Amino acid sequence: MEEKKLYVGYAAQKITPPLGSNVPGHGFVPRLSTGIIDDIYAYAVAFSDGENKAILFNCDVLGIRNVRADAIREKIGKRVGIPAEHVMIATTHCHTAAWMGGDLSSEEPYGSYYGRQESILCDLAQFAMEDLKPAVMKGARGKVEGVGFIRRYLLADGTYKTNPGYMRPDIVRPDGVQDESLQLVRFEREGGKEIVLVNFGTHPDVVSGTLYSPDWPGYVVRFLKGALGGNSEVVMLNGFGGDSNHCNRFKPKPTIPTLDFAKGMARRIAGEALKVYDDATELPVGRVAGLFKIASVEKNPHEDWEVPIAEKIVATKAKTEKELPDELRAYKITIKKAQRILKNLKQDGDYLIPVYALQVGSLAFVGFPGEPFSETGMIVKERSCKEMTLCCCRTNGSYGYFPTRRAYEGAGYEREYTSLGPNCSEQLTDAAIEILNEMNK
């Protein structure tokens, strides 16, 4: 059998939305954009083994909506002649950007912007495929401490709180473990710039405000490209960090501007990537393929008595619990929980959640269509049979949080919000491992 070779291509283009569009990511609070700090981008990396092709996108957006995710991948696949399952669209989950894959018929400026997004992704796929060049693949690992922190905490009274105040005396411990690992993949190409992928995970919710910014993932790209002297293209893949962010609650609240804070995070991440850059060792190439598996996930349960209360809460159209009448607040059902209960009543049976993966020889990309917790990524990488496995959040869809079983036992914001039941993380992880094992058959 002839030994397979690897060919890799690259393309990128800015996808900054028009001013006046909503900046999603802060719950019920509308934020109409008023300016641009830095443009947001979509990146495309194409792979070929000489016979099979696949393409990985990474976009500086909050996520890709389920309503258009599959249609966009089909559209891209038709443009470049590959199956839709060979198209993976990862997002950084940036909170100062936009959604991807929204309703094309929505009111302006949204409908035309969503249509432009899709056209850009199709163009980028074509450009990246046209840029395919022979490549050597190398990988390295590092560790970034003091950048991401678990945001769920056990309090002294036995309750759990997401994003409590800084230096609260009743904080006992974080409810989880932050994944501090960094992974770096280099594609050294003949006759073209090197392509460098960086994988690290925590929430990009640092900059805030109404000005567009790619947050820390975008600044990792900028700083690492600068440090490498312009001879490399860089893509920053955000990993699993649905329960982590940049806030260390055991220290005083930072006083520096949020933009400077995000850039400081980016310097530390880019610095670690640069530190391990020359340690990268060659990874075996081989088959290029896209795979997926559907996990059947039960609904987040509720009590029968909660249904009429949830209906009354939602009917008030209150934005916060403080706006609810006293008689409804007494039930201690949050607005998010009420909405979730009513949503699940409309769901017929279990949720069918797809898990995605791309294979590039001994390298695998695993994408969950939502926000898995940090430990889930650690487990996937530990159980993976591939030499290197890069985990990507909010990939090919957005089904919300995927909490661990421990998070359900402790309750809190993510459990209240998610539509999925207590086994969701385990079921999705098992699906990912099944896919990874299939790659070695």
Detailed description of the structure:
This protein starts with 6 loop residues before the first strand and ends with a helix. The protein contains 11 helices and 24 strands. It has 441 residues and is of the alpha/beta class. The radius of gyration is 21 Å and the shape is globular.
Q: Keywords for this structure?
A:
single chain, about 450 residues, alpha/beta, nine-stranded mixed beta sheet, four-stranded mixed beta sheet, 11 helices, about 30% helix
Summarize the structure.
This protein is 30% helix and 27% strand. It has helices at residues 66-80, 110-130, 215-227, 258-277, 306-315, 326-329, 335-346, 374-383, 405-410, 413-417, 424-439; strands spanning 7-14, 35-36, 41-48, 53-59, 63-64, 87-91, 99-100, 133-143, 149-150, 152-155, 160-162, 171-174, 181-189, 194-200, 211-212, 232-238, 244-245, 281-282, 288-297, 351-360, 363-367, 371-372, 388-392, 401-402. It is globular, with a radius of gyration of 21 Å.
